[in-house]
Amino acid sequence: MSLMKNQANPWLTSNLLVLGLGMLPALLLIGVLLYFTAWAFAFSFTDLALVGRKSVEWSWVGLQNFERLFTRRGFLESLWTTVIFVFFSAIVGQSVLGFLLAALLRGTQSTIKTVVEVCIMLGWLLPDIVAAFLWSATTSQTGLINSLIIVPLGFPPVNFINDYALPVVTIANIWKGTAWSYLLFSAALDSVSREVVEAAKVDGATAFQRIWLVMLPIIRPHIATNMLFITIWTFTYFPLIFAMTGGGPGTQTQTLAVFLYNQSFSRGNLGFGSAISVAMLVIVGLLSLVYLRMLREPK
Known about the structure:
This protein has helices at residues 2-43, 64-71, 73-104, 111-125, 128-139, 144-150, 160-163, 165-190, 194-202, 207-218, 220-235, 239-244, 256-266, 270-295. The protein is mainly α. It has a single domain (73-296), classed as Orthogonal Bundle (MetI-like fold). The chain starts with a helix and ends with a helix.
């Protein structure tokens, strides 16, 4: 008995060592994230600046930065712009379009499917700066839309990127990010048993009813997972918006990420910028809790 115990201990020790080494990168990553989160939280209670005297002789200001968030228009306007951008470009645009394309192309092997997938993946694989340049060039007053559609129809050219900045940025982000939803929903729909779908069809269910009453309940966890990721990504998304409009014209496309950048680096208010980042962290955390509840199987 003692011999078996002595033989088991080295085996257990070696496995625990391997497990600990395997978890080390994740623990280091979590530690780094917690470290910078703690510093951002601490700086949110200060008047720290990027340059000048306050960059070295900053002081504690208590809740002044958080009071400023809700008593001045900048943060609340940017929050509303972010909500609109996230809802239409991620929740409605990327998620719905990705599911519709996955449902329509499910089980098909054709040239049309290949062309659609190439177009979707192209937007996802292109760097944000390149995508921003393409959309800016396409929607400018001398761009492709005006040259091929607006002017030939006899209408004066329209500067879409200036006159309709938020819709243009929203459409560009839909094109940029739909590939993720399409790939996830394609894999989810492929896991749905064809026998179940065929049984519903035999029972007289229409195509819409088969999707709404059969497929969607089965892939419900995948829908919640997709919504969780694209909401977080879009809520904190920065490069495409900043490269296309810089948050303008005025503040029309100034989302919270752009507002955070402008306050922290353009104006140098690192303390106030830290308060913005903490507020964004809280909002994203609450949204994550909502989606995690959706992931739970209904009782």
